[in-house]
Amino acid sequence: MESQDIKPREPQDEHIVENKELSIWEALIPVLALVLMLFYNVKYAFGDDALSGSNQFILLLGAAVAAIVGFFNKVTYDQMLTEVAENVKSTTGALLILLFVGSLAGTWLISGIIPAMIYYGLQILSPEIFLPACVVICAIISIATGSSWTTSATVGIALVGIGNALGINPGMTAGAVISGAYFGDKMSPLSDTTNLAPAMAGGELFSHIKYMTYTTVPTIIVTLIIFIIISLSIDVSGSTDTSAMLASIKESFNISPWLFLVPIIVIFMIVKKTPPLIALLVGTLLGGVFALIFQPEIVKNITGADNLTFLSAYKGIMNAMTVETSIATTSKELNDLFSSGGMYGMLGTIWLIVCAMVFGGVMDAIGALSRISKAVLNLFDSIFGLFASTVISCVGLNAIASDQYLAIVIPGRMYAKAFKDKGLAPENLSRTLEDSGTVTSALVPWNTCGAYQSSVLGVDTMHYAGYAFFNYLSPFTTLIFAGFKIKIKQLASK
To answer: CB 373: neighbour CB atoms within 10 A?
Structure first.
């Protein structure tokens, strides 16, 4: 992701509140309450529909529990509200990106861009290589752009669509997309988290990237091997004959290679460090223009007009950007695939992010985040224990604070001195922050990254989490390296 679009202020300037009067048990009360409420809500009450609103309210209830703990520890209402406001403000860019991704998906659907990707993808990507190909494609795009979010919003959407058309479990496809996207996000010098981790640890960017390859490359290789085995073993219902789907797409849309010009322009803008909000806006508008050029009948039919006039064209494109839009074809599978919620479809995710930031803001305001991190650090005394405490803190903060940046900033600040005292170079800390903080954010449904990926790809977080092998293997890899003392860089002696 790109920090200038996610955080109005620099992530390394994030203020961390400490409260010496707060005990570790008091700090854990809101966490335990939240976990129990979420468990009951998902397991027994709403199941997969929990993200439709009930989980959002439970995050607010968790914030209320944290606020009560804060009141008993002399934290004022105004202090909590100020921290919540800062947290919500910090997600301004993320919320705008979500809205633009919704509008972009709408115009890319009615223009035929997404159908064209699926049309050509069905002919090129066979089921035998599809999942590992998803990993490689997304890794390349993410390295080039430095953004897992942009990768998911462009090629990720198309790949999930192709996978659905082939009859592949969408959770598998989304897991492959996210695995590749977060590999590139970690390794790209353009990524904000790749720059943030060494800044927090006191290291240097390219030394950090070089040191990350020791754990990241083996993890992505294992991930590819797993996906190759899955691809060779799954029974794909849509793999026997896709001619009917291809004919249906060709019949419903004017398919042309020229449609790829729009995503190429968007990716080129990102590579040239154009802010993603601007790139997504350009992609959305170009999608609308291409819809008028290549699919005028579809634009006309959206509004039910007899003729394509300026008014009907305007209404058709605006509807695709903002509300639910569906394109009917002769294929039942494609009818489910060729639909978009527009900006309206992103409102549930925005609601989730705001509620998560309220909980994280109150937890930070009462000093709970700082207290929990310090307590975890005190549990361990060995070098392996130091690495383990960092991993636990990063993963835990992704769930508690619901924010990837806090999961890097807080442990980075808290543990930098501990690593130095053990004679360990800052590359050890920065690598561990990335191996556990960056990648696991997409596995938490109420984290900004998990909510975003689920919304953009159209696959529930819990459905893809089990297949995002790279993301949950990375923390184990870094612990294995620490346990066997592999590539543990020492501080240079003066």
So the answer is: 25
Q: How many residues are there in the chain? A: 494
Q: Are 253 and 298 in contact (CB under 8 A)?
A: yes
Specify the 3-state DSSP secondary structure of 325: strand
Rounded to an integer, what distance in angstroms lies between the CA atom of residue 31 and that of residue 66? Answer: 8
- Residues 51/1/372/21 CA torsion (nearest 10 deg): -100
Residue 17: phi, psi to the nearest 5?
A: -90, 135
Q: Which residues contact 35 (CB under 8 A, 6 or more apart)?
A: none
> What residue spans of 366-484 are helical by DSSP H?
368-378, 383-400, 404-421, 426-433, 439-440, 448-457, 461-464, 469-483
Q: What is the pLDDT along the chain (494 residues), one digit of tens a residue?
A: 443 343 434 444 555 566 667 888 998 899 889 878 877 886 678 765 766 788 789 889 999 999 999 999 989 999 999 999 987 887 787 788 778 888 988 999 999 988 888 788 767 777 788 899 999 988 887 886 677 887 887 788 888 988 888 888 999 999 999 999 999 888 887 677 887 788 778 888 778 888 999 999 999 999 999 999 998 887 765 544 567 778 888 899 999 999 999 989 988 887 787 887 888 899 999 999 999 999 999 998 888 888 888 999 999 999 999 998 888 887 766 776 687 888 998 887 788 778 878 888 898 899 887 787 778 777 777 889 889 989 998 998 888 877 787 788 778 877 877 888 888 899 999 999 999 999 999 999 888 889 889 988 989 998 999 999 999 999 999 999 999 988 888 876 54
| Full-model pTM | 0.71
CA-to-CA separations, 361 to 79, 310, 349, 406, in angstroms, rounded: 10, 47, 18, 11
Please give the Cα distance from 316 to 303 (Å, whole number): 6
